[in-house]
Specification:
Structural class: mainly beta
Order of helices and strands: EHEEEEEHEEEEEEEHH
Shape: globular
Largest sheet: 9 strands, mixed
Distance between the termini: 20 Å
Helix content: 10-25%
Strand content: 35-45%
Radius of gyration: 16 Å
Number of helices: 4
Number of strands: 13
Oligomer: single chain
Length: 198
């Protein structure tokens, strides 16, 4: 599970790191405690461009009758993506990257939970693998929302939590965003635990 993360890099670094362009109406503020249902940044391909745009964290499927379902869909299990109606149709062409500097997990201890902040050793900006969808609200507004894909924890995270978000390497990011790649056989192998040594 991934229920909190941070994004604190400045906007220029974000654009440089992902070779992206900025949506004209995007408002960005660094955040050390990003929570579900908040507006977060996602990286997607649009008309051949890599674009940084806002999403609501918590997927609202296009067929949903109510936006409240998003609260329950902040994460998507990699092992069941191709089985769940909410996710299986998004994998071929509605993939995104979700930039982050780190994330939080909570370890159960007697009578409490101990939070841990997890980040790369080199303090590098990285990305989670995500899926997105668009939903038409009764008001006529179109809401773009996303979910973070999770997988089993690597050896470093296992003592804290049994699952972790899927973190992609820069090379994997290019594959994940490539709109010409639509086959599950090429995409699902990317959704593995990030190496513990990194």
């Amino acid at each position: 599970m991934c229920g909190r993360f941070t994004l604190t890099s400045d906007i220029d670094l974000l654009l440089y790191r992902f070779s992206a362009i900025l949506m004209s109406d995007l408002k960005y503020t660094p955040n050390y405690n990003i929570a579900p249902t908040q507006t977060i940044l996602g990286v997607v391909k649009e008309a051949g461009n890599t674009v940084l745009k806002p999403f609501t964290w918590g997927l609202i499927p296009f067929w949903s009758k109510d936006s409240k379902i998003g609260v329950k869909m902040i994460n998507a299990r990699s092992e069941t993506l191709t089985q769940k109606p909410s996710f299986r149709n998004l994998l071929p062409n509605r993939r995104c990257l979700i930039p982050a500097n780190g994330f939080y997990e909570w370890m159960k201890i007697p009578q409490a939970k101990q939070p841990y902040y997890i980040k790369p050793k080199k303090d590098e900006l990285f990305s989670f693998a995500g899926l997105w969808d668009s939903w038409s609200a009764p008001s006529g507004e179109t809401i773009y929302s996303c979910t973070i894909i999770t997988t089993e924890a690597n050896d470093l995270i296992k003592p804290v939590h049994k699952r972790m978000p899927v973190i992609l390497s820069p090379e994997q990011e290019h594959i994940w965003l490539d709109q010409n790649i639509t086959k599950n056989a090429l995409l699902l192998p990317l959704l593995k635990p990030f190496p513990s040594k990194l």
